[in-house]
C-alpha cells in the first residue's frame, strides 16, 4: 500500500501547532511534530509572516500531500480574537494553497468526538487519546502539538473510512 503524508495544523497567532503523520498499511506514525511561534510582541504583519514562513518550511521539507486544519472557534463575546485568529488561518491556508495541497477543515467538536467519543472532551483527554492512538510513551506536549496530531488523525480516519460519523 502506498504511504500518505498529512499535515495537521492547530492554528494560533502566538503558537501554531503542526504535525506531519504518515499513513501506510493502516498504521500511522509521526514524521515530525512541533510548534511555529510568532513574536509575542511583534507587529501583526511580522507575526503572520513568521507563521507563514515556518509552515511553508515544514511543507517544503516534509512534503505532505494534504493539510488538515482546525476551524476557527471563538466565543461571540470576543470578536476581536476571531478576527486576529483569522489572520493566522489565512496565511496557513495560503502556504498550503501555494504548495498545491488540498486543505481540509474540521471543527474542534468533530475532532474531539472522533478521537474521544465526546465533542466536549477537555484538552487532557485529547492528549491521552492522541498518545494512545499513536502508541506514544509520553503525552504530546505542548497541547498545541497534541491538537495538531489530533487534526491529522481526524483527517486520516475520515479519509480512510468516509462513512464514519464524526
Automatic annotation (TrEMBL):
Family annotation (CDD domains): RuvC
Question: What's the catalysed reaction?
Answer: Endonucleolytic cleavage at a junction such as a reciprocal single-stranded crossover between two homologous DNA duplexes (Holliday junction)
Q: Which cofactor does it need?
A: Mg(2+)
Major subcellular location class: cytoplasm
One Gene Ontology cellular component annotation?
Answer: Holliday junction resolvase complex
- Please name the catalytic residues of this protein: 10, 70, 144
Q: How is the cofactor bound?
A: Binds 2 Mg(2+) ion per subunit.
Q: What is its EC number?
A: 3.1.21.10
The record, for InterPro entries, names:
RNaseH-like_sf, RNaseH_sf, X-over_junc_endoDNase_Mg_BS, X-over_junc_endoDNase_RuvC
Pfam family, any one: RuvC
> Keywords on this record?
Cytoplasm, DNA damage, DNA recombination, DNA repair, DNA-binding, Endonuclease, Hydrolase, Magnesium, Metal-binding, Nuclease
- Where does this one sit in the cell? Cytoplasm
Query: What is the protein's quaternary organization?
Result: Homodimer which binds Holliday junction (HJ) DNA. The HJ becomes 2-fold symmetrical on binding to RuvC with unstacked arms; it has a different conformation from HJ DNA in complex with RuvA. In the full resolvosome a probable DNA-RuvA(4)-RuvB(12)-RuvC(2) complex forms which resolves the HJ.
Please give the family membership noted in the entry. Belongs to the RuvC family.
Function description: The RuvA-RuvB-RuvC complex processes Holliday junction (HJ) DNA during genetic recombination and DNA repair. Endonuclease that resolves HJ intermediates. Cleaves cruciform DNA by making single-stranded nicks across the HJ at symmetrical positions within the homologous arms, yielding a 5'-phosphate and a 3'-hydroxyl group; requires a central core of homology in the junction. The consensus cleavage sequence is 5'-(A/T)TT(C/G)-3'. Cleavage occurs on the 3'-side of the TT dinucleotide at the point of strand exchange.
Recorded protein name is Crossover junction endodeoxyribonuclease RuvC
